[in-house]
C-alpha cells in the first residue's frame, strides 16, 4: 500500500460507501456485471488505493493503456475500491442506441473528435470534474501502447492540461496483464471475422486465466505548476507518466524487457519508452 498524503482527516468507511452508492443504479449494476466478467476471465490483484481525503471532490485518474480489456479491468478494480470511474469517450459511443444509454447513465464525459476544438474538449472535462463527485479516468497515451516492450509511450499533455486547468489531483494507475486477456486485433472492427478474432482470444484467456494486476499510486504533486505557464503542461505530463511507469515496474518484475505473452496482432513502433532509466 502507498503512504497517504497529509491533509484533512479521512472519511469513515461508511462515508466512502455513501459516495459510491450515490452513483446511478444502472451504472452500479453494470459494474457488478463487469466484475463477474473479469472474475471469469482471470485473477484480479489490486494494490494501493485512492486516499479518502481525495474522494468526493474533483479527481483525475491516469492509467497506462495496454489492451482492449483495459476498461473492464479498471472498472472492476475501481469497484473493489468503491470508486465509480467516469471515462472520457468519443461521441460515437454516446450516439449508439445501447452504449449511448450506458455512457449517459454512468455520467461519462463526451469528447467529439474533429467536431470541437481542443479548448472545447478540455472545457468539457474540466466542467465534468467540478459537476460530479466521481473521478474521471483517462489514458494519457491516447492509444494502446505500441512501445516495443509495452512500457508507457511518451503520452500527450491533454491529461496534464485538464489537471492544471481544474486544479485537481492526479492519481496514477499502473496495470499489467490485461493484454493477455484479449489480443490487439485490428485498429477498426469492420466485420464479424474481426469480432471473432477478439472474442476467440478472450475465450482462450478464460482457459489460461491470466493474472491482471492494478496498482493505485500516490497522488502526483503538481502544486508548483500552473495552467498558464509555458512548459508546465509538459512538466506535469512527465511527472504523471513517470509515476505510472514507476508503479508498473513491480507489477511486471519478472518481465522487465519483452513481455512473456506475445500477441502477433499487435503492431510496434521503433520508439522505446522515455520513462525508463537507461
From TrEMBL:
Keywords: Acyltransferase, Transferase
Region annotated Disordered, chain positions: 255-278
UniProt xrefs under SUPFAM superfamilies: Glycerol-3-phosphate (1)-acyltransferase
Pfam family, one: Acyltransferase
Comp. bias regions, Basic and acidic residues: 255-264
UniProt-listed GO biological process terms: phosphatidic acid biosynthetic process
Domain of life: Bacteria
GO cellular component terms given for this protein: plasma membrane
InterPro entries: Plipid/glycerol_acylTrfase
Domain Phospholipid/glycerol acyltransferase: 59-178
Record GO terms (molecular function): 1-acylglycerol-3-phosphate O-acyltransferase activity
Keyword Transferase belongs to the record: yes
SMART domains: PlsC (SM00563)
Keyword Transferase attached: yes
Protein name: 1-acyl-sn-glycerol-3-phosphate acyltransferase
Amino acid at each position: 500500500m502507498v503512504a497517504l498524503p497529509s491533509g484533512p482527516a479521512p472519511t469513515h468507511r461508511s462515508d466512502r460507501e455513501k459516495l459510491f452508492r450515490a452513483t446511478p443504479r444502472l451504472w452500479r449494476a453494470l459494474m457488478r456485471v463487469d466484475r463477474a466478467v473479469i472474475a471469469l476471465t482471470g485473477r484480479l490483484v489490486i494494490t494501493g488505493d485512492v486516499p479518502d481525503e481525495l474522494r468526493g471532490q474533483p479527481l483525475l485518474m491516469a492509467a497506462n493503456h495496454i489492451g482492449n480489456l483495459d476498461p473492464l479491468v479498471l472498472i472492476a478494480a475501481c469497484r473493489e475500491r468503491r470508486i465509480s470511474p467516469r471515462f472520457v469517450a468519443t461521441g460515437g459511443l454516446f450516439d449508439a442506441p445501447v452504449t449511448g444509454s450506458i455512457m449517459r447513465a454512468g455520467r461519462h464525459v463526451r469528447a467529439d473528435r474533429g467536431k470541437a476544438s481542443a479548448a472545447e474538449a478540455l472545457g468539457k472535462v474540466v466542467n465534468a470534474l467540478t459537476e460530479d463527485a466521481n473521478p474521471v479516468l483517462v489514458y494519457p497515451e491516447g492509444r494502446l501502447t505500441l512501445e516495443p516492450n509495452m512500457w508507457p509511450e511518451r503520452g500527450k499533455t491533454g491529461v496534464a492540461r485538464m489537471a492544471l486547468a481544474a486544479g485537481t489531483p492526479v492519481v496514477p494507475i499502473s496495470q499489467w496483464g490485461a493484454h493477455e486477456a484479449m489480443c490487439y486485433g485490428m485498429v477498426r472492427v469492420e466485420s464479424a471475422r474481426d469480432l471473432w478474432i477478439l472474442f476467440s482470444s478472450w475465450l482462450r484467456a478464460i482457459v489460461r486465466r491470466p493474472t491482471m494486476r492494478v496498482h493505485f499510486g500516490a497522488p502526483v504533486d503538481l502544486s508548483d505548476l500552473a495552467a498558464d505557464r509555458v512548459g508546465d503542461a509538459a512538466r506535469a505530463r512527465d511527472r504523471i507518466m513517470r509515476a505510472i511507469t514507476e508503479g508498473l515496474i513491480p507489477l511486471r518484475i519478472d518481465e522487465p524487457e519483452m513481455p512473456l505473452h506475445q500477441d502477433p496482432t499487435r503492431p510496434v513502433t521503433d520508439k522505446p519508452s522515455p520513462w525508463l532509466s537507461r
